[in-house]
Fold this protein.
Amino acid sequence: METAHGAIEFKGLHADVSAGTESGAIRIQSVAGHAQAIAADGSIEVDLIPGATTLPQEFTTRTGDITLYLREGMGADVRIETSGEISTDYTLQVAYDGTREPSKKAVATIGAGGSMIEAGSKRGRIRLLRGLEPLTKAN
């Protein structure tokens, strides 16, 4: 699904999803499948379910924020790139190179590891948080 400026939201699907937008927000909640979201300047919020897919998942925005909620029992290998702030409930290894953009690259192994999750924003904030309960409303 693609849009220029409008928001995109997927909720409770048992399918693969792909979303793209210029400046709208993308929200993916409780999707049991492969997820990919690309936004030029919009924000991306994702609630990932354990065991939904073994395929790599990618979430990218140029200047928007990305929030990833990983539910209990999730096993994943996470790669984050941004020059913005990184907030997390997990242990990350962060490398900084002030001569490049994005200047921070972080990696984390969640649980026993598993499918690859990549989140990247040139300047946006990236949050990697524990998602104990399904999200119930849009921000």
User: Anything to note?
Assistant: The chain has no helices and 14 strands. The CA atoms of residues 4 and 22 lie 5 Å apart.
